[in-house]
Every structure is written in C-alpha cells, then in structure tokens.
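Teaching note: in complex prediction, the entire set of molecules is handled at once rather than each chain in isolation. The prompt given to students was simply: 'Predict the structure of this complex.' The entities are:
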Amino acid sequence: MKIIVTGGAGFIGGNFVLYAVDKYPQDQIINLDALTYAGNLETLKPVEDKPNYKFVKGDIADREFIFNLFEEEKPDVVINFAAESHVDRSITDPGIFVRTNVVGTTTLLDACRTFGIGRYHQVSTDEVYGDLPLDRPDLLFTETTPLHTSSPYSSAKASADLFVQAYHRTYGLPVSISRCSNNYGPYHFPEKLIPLVISRALNDEEIPVYGKGENVRDWLYVTDHCKAIDLIVRKGREGEVYNIGGHNEKTNLEVVQTILRILGKPESLIKYVTDRPGHDLRYAMDPTKITTELGWQPEHTFETGIKDTIDWYLNNKEWWQNIISGEYQNYFTKQYKM
Ligand code: NAD
Ligand code: DAU
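The expected output is the structure of the full assembly:
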C-alpha cells in the first residue's frame, strides 16, 4: 500500500510516520510537508534512510504541485495531518488557516477524486464541537454533537470536515474523519501548553497561564492517537466520523502544577496573563464508538504519559532548544509581551 501522510514533519504526523514506517515495512510512506515554522525534519531522523520512507517538500494548497504528485505516485491512501494548528496564531492571523486548513483540504480531495483513492482520512479535532460548560461534568462530545466553533482555527477545521463529508455524499469519495482531544508527547512544538511549560520550567522562566487556569482539556498521549487513526484507516467504516479521547480531563492549572512538581520547580514560576479571546472552557470526548466498533483503547494514563513526555524533553534538549533559540523568540515576545 502507498500512503501519503501530509504534515508528517509536525508533532502528530511525525509520530504517526515513525510508528507506521516501523510497523508496516511492506507499505510505502510518503511524507508530504511544506516545512512551515512547525515542521521539523529532525523528528524524522530515525526513519530517513528506511527503504519504505520518502520525504517530499510541498504545499497541500498548491494545486499544480499536488496534482503532479498524485499523478506520479498514485497513492492508495491519504492521511491529512497538515494544518495550521495553533489557536493563538489563528487569532492573530486567520487567513493562513483558511488557506491551509480549508483550501489545502479541498485541493487534496480534488486530487483524490481525479486520480482515485482507496481511503482519504481527515485528521480533525474536538474543537469543531465548540466547548462545554465547566459545571456540567456529565456532558461529553459525541459524533452527533453539532459543530459550533469558537476560534478561526476551529472554524477552518470544521469547514474542512464539512467538505470531506460533502465529497463523500456528492462524489462517493471513500473518506473517514477522526476528531481527537488534546495530544501531548514527544516532538510537540513548544508553543503549545505542555511543551511550553516543560521547556520554560527547565530554564527557570515564567510560565504564562491564561485567565485563572481553570479551563479544562482532555489529554491523550500522541501514540494512542496515532494507533486510533491507523485503526480507522484500515478497519473503520467509510463516510464515518470517530471521536478519540481517553477520559483524562484536567484543568490547565492542574497540568502546570503536575509538571512543576515532577521537575521539582516552584509554583512561583506561574504567571497569570490576559485570557485568550473566546477561550473554550472545556473539551471532553466520548470515545464509545471507536471503543465498541474498532476495539481501540488508550495505552497511557495521563500520569504515565506526562512522566514519559518529561523524560523525552529532558533527554532530547537539542530538539527543542534549536526551536526556542530561533524565530520562536520573536513569536513569544509578541504573543505574551513578557
Ligand atoms: P503541527 O502544527 O505540529 O504540524 C503541522 C504540520 O503541517 C507541520 O509539519 C507543517 O509544516 C505542516 N504544514 C502546515 N501547512 C502546510 C501546507 N500548506 N502544506 C503541507 N504541510 C503543511 O500540528 P499537530 O499538532 O501535529 O496537528 C496535526 C493535525 O492534528 C492537525 O490537522 C490538527 O488540527 C490535528 N489535531 C491536533 C491536536 C493536538 O492536540 N495537537 C489534537 C487533535 C487534532
Ligand atoms: O483539542 C484539540 C486541540 O488541542 C487541537 O485541535 C489544536 O491543534 C491544539 O493546539 C490544541 O488546542 P488548545 O488550544 O487546547 O491547546 P494549547 O496547548 O494552545 O492550550 C491548552 C490550554 O492551555 C488552553 O486552555 C489554553 C491554555 N494555555 C495555552 C498556552 C499556549 C495557557 O494557559 N497558556 C499558554 O501559554
């Protein structure tokens, strides 16, 4: 099988490529990535010389490039991880989110329609459902929860999902969609909460917490997400949406305090800063469908996963120090004014 993985130089796509190249030596994995600020080929070092792996630099919204690639490679499967993925950046600059997340997705769908495909899989997010109140722990997102987005990021992701479903209904394209909760683990870009806290705490720098730190996220270790996607692509039903999550809800403050405790750093590093505009209160996934239909179960609890993640950042300082020493400094100063 020939699989094009888009966004495979990013956090989740990178973890997926490492997993798939190793697990399926008989498959060809083509990693297609534009190498934006979030893409990093250092992540792919362990597989770069494997015979079943190839990297191609390119933009999923570049129609001519994508059509040429599909004509040449004739992939059996496309898994679309490529996206602008950071909510804060979408608030500052929404346009690129429309281009990559919406135009990029429809360009891939058109290429699949033109050249044929066994399965197109869209990697989506729980953020398409909007948020849940903090005082109703009984409420969870299911696959039938209406789309109700808050940020330019989630609006672009929801729009992409609607196009994927439209191409299934209108053209019969064999598609699937997964919507996952917050991921964490190795190779996570340090603009996102968990790697930001780890990297700054290790440098004894202040940690910005939005509002009162009471917003809730539902955390899943990244390889549990990768395994769920693999299962959906190979065994999931065409045209279906599958929610992915492991019932690991934590307030942001709990997450920050846990990391500081494990690292032996003081809570005085926490700095409460102006809240994110439109900040979603709580995400919580109901993964019953993927659990009962496909037998998926997460292998990591938050307690084991966060320790493994911290160990990875301690043992791979070069990977993240290279990132935070570059353009990232300007981003951080502009975003946090600190
Ligand atoms: P990321 O920002 O770490 O990586 C995105 C990758 O896409 C980068 O390698 C980047 O270079 C590439 N890319 C960006 N624009 C591109 C373009 N126009 N053409 C080709 N490549 C391009 O993102 P991530 O956190 O790994 O998220 C991957 C996917 O998973 C996204 O679609 C995101 O919406 C979804 N998702 C993320 C999470 C999470 O917690 N991080 C949770 C659920 C779903
Ligand atoms: O839920 C899935 C989504 O999770 C994905 O679709 C997104 O691509 C991914 O970025 C993530 O979105 P969040 O906005 O939830 O993740 P982030 O790490 O940016 O923030 C997590 C929580 O921490 C959120 O409530 C905002 C808060 N936060 C974040 C940062 C970066 C802070 O308090 N301080 C910060 O500096």
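Point out the following to students. The chain has a mean pLDDT of 98. Residues 6-7, 9-13, 33-36, 38-39, 59-61, 81-85, 100, 104, 123, 125, 157, 180, 182-183, 189 surround nicotinamide-adenine-dinucleotide (ligand 1) (CB under 6 Å).
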